[in-house]
């Protein structure tokens, strides 16, 4: 029996096999897919209970358990990848996921994303399957999943001219989020999920809660006038969320429209996260000390901000002059003076 709950758009199924009641979400709002999943589950449950076979689990079963058990701060990113994977894995038993299916997924993803993003998607599949095998004991083996080599690329940041070209090409709702990122350096999820309760316009401060921050600590975000102006433009669009599209919250910004805007602006090898790199790079070039940048950006490690040190070599000059042999005024017989005079 298929049915929907008032609080969910997903179809649920409920059936009884030899006195055992099975009640579960199908993880889909497509009724045809939901019926297929329910039928498969019922057949598998029948085999387990009546024939004593080992229970088989669908990909959706693993996804639901993965999400419900997860304590990852990046679970929203996982959900984004999992939503894309539904076309290829919905209704598939875990033990039927083989190398051929994985290759099909890789080829499909390469058509819409680069190799790095493909790696993120396949890493998630690998993690879920490994969990299903090692911890949940749902499957006995996992397929080989190839991984593309990722080089240690230089940090890609935009010049002022490039940023202006890109902003000009973005749709209005994405433009607001991009400008806010360039003004604050916040990560994508912190911008898309920002709520009005996290903003104090009078004190010009916003804050990211510990469970929203990558480092697990509250981030206090001072708002410059650019950020304030952007926030003012969002007032009245949504009761809870700061940034929305057609009255609905935005969950992802690196979309087709973003990629098309990059093409029109003639900007290559750039991702949304590059806006954070751009913000940090501009700060260092403007003379912001690295220790201050670390606090502004919410980085847990000083090593992370050292990546930007080369952009401001002149900031070392004043300190280099703190030690000068000539300023020490050695005596006439000093060997140091003889060396300097040679």
From TrEMBL:
<dbReference type="InterPro" id="IPR013762">
    <property type="entry name" value="Integrase-like_cat_sf"/>
</dbReference>
<feature type="domain" description="Tyr recombinase">
    <location>
        <begin position="153"/>
        <end position="321"/>
    </location>
</feature>
<protein>
    <submittedName>
        <fullName>Integrase</fullName>
    </submittedName>
</protein>
<dbReference type="Pfam" id="PF00589">
    <property type="entry name" value="Phage_integrase"/>
</dbReference>
<dbReference type="GO" id="GO:0015074">
    <property type="term" value="P:DNA integration"/>
</dbReference>
<comment type="similarity">
    <text>Belongs to the 'phage' integrase family.</text>
</comment>
<dbReference type="InterPro" id="IPR050090">
    <property type="entry name" value="Tyrosine_recombinase_XerCD"/>
</dbReference>
<keyword id="KW-0229">DNA integration</keyword>
<keyword id="KW-0233">DNA recombination</keyword>
<dbReference type="InterPro" id="IPR010998">
    <property type="entry name" value="Integrase_recombinase_N"/>
</dbReference>
<dbReference type="InterPro" id="IPR011010">
    <property type="entry name" value="DNA_brk_join_enz"/>
</dbReference>
<dbReference type="GO" id="GO:0003677">
    <property type="term" value="F:DNA binding"/>
</dbReference>
<dbReference type="GO" id="GO:0006310">
    <property type="term" value="P:DNA recombination"/>
</dbReference>
<dbReference type="InterPro" id="IPR002104">
    <property type="entry name" value="Integrase_catalytic"/>
</dbReference>
<keyword id="KW-0238">DNA-binding</keyword>
């Amino acid at each position: 029996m298929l049915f929907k709950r008032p609080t969910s758009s997903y179809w649920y199924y409920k059936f009884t096999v030899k006195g055992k009641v099975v009640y579960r979400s199908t993880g889909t709002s497509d009724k045809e897919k939901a019926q297929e999943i329910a039928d498969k589950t019922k057949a598998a449950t029948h085999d387990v209970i009546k024939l004593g076979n080992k229970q088989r689990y669908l990909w959706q079963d693993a996804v639901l358990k993965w999400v419900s058990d997860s304590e990852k701060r990046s679970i929203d990113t996982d959900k984004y990848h999992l939503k894309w994977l539904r076309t290829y894995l919905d209704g598939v038993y875990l033990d039927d996921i083989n190398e051929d299916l994985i290759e099909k997924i890789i080829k499909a993803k390469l058509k819409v994303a680069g190799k790095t993003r493909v790696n993120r998607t396949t890493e998630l599949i690998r993690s879920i399957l490994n969990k299903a095998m090692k911890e949940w004991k749902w499957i006995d083996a996992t397929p080989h999943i190839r991984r593309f080599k990722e080089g240690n690329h230089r940090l890609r940041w935009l010049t002022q001219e490039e940023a202006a070209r890109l902003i000009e090409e973005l749709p209005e709702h994405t433009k607001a989020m991009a400008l806010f990122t360039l003004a604050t350096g916040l990560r994508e999820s912190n911008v898309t999920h920002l709520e009005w309760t996290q903003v104090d316009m009078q004190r010009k401060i916003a804050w990211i809660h510990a469970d929203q921050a990558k480092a697990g600590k509250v981030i206090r975000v001072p708002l410059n006038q650019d950020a304030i102006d952007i926030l003012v433009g969002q007032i009245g669009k949504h009761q809870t969320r700061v940034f929305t599209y057609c009255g609905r919250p935005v969950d992802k910004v690196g979309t087709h429209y973003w990629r098309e805007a990059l093409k029109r602006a003639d900007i290559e090898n750039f991702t949304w996260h590059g806006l954070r790199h751009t913000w940090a790079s501009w700060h260092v070039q403007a003379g912001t000390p690295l220790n201050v940048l670390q606090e502004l950006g919410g980085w847990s490690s000083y090593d992370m901000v050292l990546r930007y040190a080369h952009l401001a070599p002149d900031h070392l000059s004043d300190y280099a002059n703190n030690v000068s042999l000539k300023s020490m005024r050695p005596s006439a017989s000093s060997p140091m003076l003889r060396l300097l005079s040679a």
